[in-house]
């Protein structure tokens, strides 16, 4: 995960030297209310909203589900240039929070008896990818889910440069995987853990092989629609509620619009590693339902909660990330354990976590980033605002 941060930092250093298309679209205003604005902890959550704005966040969507009810709010601006206020109905990319949906899809297929976690991945992968991706012929589905496969990361410096010069635009999972053909594995299967988005692109191919549907279609038809998560999107289309995306590369308070580049980077088909879109309200509802056993069998929930210590060096800012399971992180906070995932697609960032002790779920998605914002949002202290 630390290597991903280094790559992301270079991405935006390069952006300062690169021009992009002039932004012409205006984000539509959204009139809506979600949850209970009179929640007993509303004042606490409003302080968190204020802290985010103070750190330089342009816009964010925040939802907190507690035993006392649900609080949801838009924060700041969905469209800075056109002064469109953020509402709970606006949507943004959630980055690697998408991995929770991919893991849920795989576990649902296990519940249906269509695969098992310890099946060899090559049983379901097209031969083209088994032959050309190191370790794809010997890893299991479980090892793809928990990042112990050793399969190399596809998101590299070369990949970023291609995005910037528009030689790659909205590549699919399959197209991105072909970029690692012939590259050496990072380590032997099962030797250790190292976060690699390539693992989840391979999982998208497994979902397609088992179901006959694209991974996005399966997630939409079997997880999102049946459970009423109307504002979570697993497809390549951009909803009308979608916001702009901004980045302050110099940490000087100047936010540049990078929406087009963001969409070129992860707008392709079946990018279940980080391409999904949501508002915080439905994202929190999904995670609450998942964590409380409403979407998967008891056996699959046990697998989901079987955390192993993270051995990869994550850097000083993520020392509270204590474990990883199947598309799920375990944090050690000042208020006990939190289970969920962080997500980042450069400017767009998401996170969703469940606190089992308090039965509280928090989902936060933002449309802007900088080093200062990231340090605050990924700190364990941010959760102090909730309790």
TrEMBL record:
Entries under InterPro entries matching the protein: AmpC-like, Beta-lactam-related, Beta-lactam/transpept-like
Coiled-coil regions listed: none
Q: What's one Pfam family the UniProt record gives for this protein?
A: Beta-lactamase
Lineage: superkingdom:
Bacteria
Q: Which UniProt keywords apply?
A: Hydrolase
Domain Beta-lactamase-related positions: 51-369
Entries under Gene3D superfamilies matching the protein: DD-peptidase/beta-lactamase superfamily
- GO MF term set: hydrolase activity
* Full protein name: Class A beta-lactamase-related serine hydrolase
- The organism encoding this protein is Arundinibacter roseus
Q: What is the lineage of its organism?
A: Bacteria, Pseudomonadati, Bacteroidota, Cytophagia, Cytophagales
